[in-house]
Write a structure and sequence with these properties.
With 141 residues, this protein is mainly beta. It has one helix and ten strands. Bound molecules: thymidine-5'-diphosphate (TYD).
Length: 141
Amino acid sequence: MNTSSFVKLIEIKNLGDARGDLVSFESNKSIPFQIKRVYSLLNTIHSRGYHAHKELKQVLVCLSGKCTVILDNGFTKESVVLDSFNKGLLIEAMTWREMHEFSKDCVLLVLASEHYNEDDYIRDYQTFIKLVSNAQNTYAV
Ligand code: TYD
């Protein structure tokens, strides 16, 4: 049985000092792609996500509070708690994601490799499963 995890975590260094914490995100350095868009989820009172992206890569960082992210590559589901600004969660393309259990004070920062493009979304789970299965069959030898 293959028990290896497909979750990719990035350590975000705290550059702070006695004055307080400081974190920095740089394209193609700490963040493994060119950042084209930054957005944030705040005051979230309901689970969200429930989609995958065809091309988009993202890094999620919980700057304050916590939330739980479920990742699904079509074969395995994994759950990751984001509760520290030291922890970046890299979400590759073709990964179904759901975000749950947002604390009241959760500030989730999202760094994205592309501009917003609705055509890049896969919002139907069965369509996602079909696409990953087809890709698997195409590459299987
Ligand atoms: P969406 O990504 O669908 O959020 P979730 O899947 O978590 O519900 O985004 C919600 C809405 O916000 C959607 O109508 C598109 C819009 N939106 C933008 O215009 N730009 C963005 O960068 C993002 C992330 C969303």
